[in-house]
Write a structure and sequence with these properties.
Blueprint: H1 2-47, H2 51-82, H3 95-136, H4 141-177
Helix pairs in contact: 1-2, 1-4, 2-3, 3-4
């Protein structure tokens, strides 16, 4: 009988860890949601596009920035080591090889950003639905947005831990090595 209670306790502690671990990301996503909602409204008015199109465009822009930073960060870290020596002339890449490499890198970043933008859209829909439902119950708009962002982040991490981890590994392999 003690094995049953140990399992229940382990489950409750795991849920508590998931709630606690999702909070910093929820705060970050909440700040991005505030900024993204502002951009989305501006794009919707300026380009006269639907809510879905503007939300997808904002998700793509945020994904593009995040993936670009993740892709460029290792190169930035290795810059001080680049000056350690000179590459012999016969091993030095030509301008066309550098251009092809840069084009390939930009293509990979673009495709990966599209993937992450499309992957984030169900969570954007869920957060928007929850925020509208909470606003109807007399919640402040910012509080409703934070609660909806936290719930969406929590569901994302629960799904990620159980189902989507191999997908992320494959995408990162494609981005850096593919």
């Amino acid at each position: 009988m003690s094995g049953f209670f140990d399992n229940i306790l382990a489950l409750l502690l795991s849920i508590l860890d998931l709630l606690k671990g999702s909070l910093p990301f929820a705060i970050l996503f909440f700040l991005l949601a505030i900024f993204g909602k502002y951009i989305q409204v501006k794009l919707q008015k300026r380009l006269r596009i639907s809510w879905f199109q503007s939300a997808l465009l904002v998700a793509f822009l945020f994904s593009l920035i995040a993936v670009s930073l993740a892709y460029i960060f290792p190169y930035i870290i290795s810059l001080p080591r680049e000056q350690l020596g000179e590459i012999p002339a016969e091993l030095r890449p030509e301008l066309s090889e550098k251009f092809l490499s840069a084009t390939n890198s930009m293509f990979k970043v673009f495709i990966t950003s599209i993937f992450f933008a499309l992957l984030s859209m169900p969570f954007v829909f869920m957060a928007s639905f929850i925020a509208r439902a909470l606003e109807g119950k007399k919640f402040n708009k910012k509080v409703a947005l934070f609660i909806s962002t936290y719930i969406s982040t929590l569901i994302f991490f629960a799904l990620f831990l159980f189902f989507m981890e191999p997908i992320l590994v494959g995408v990162l392999y494609y981005l850096y090595s593919g």
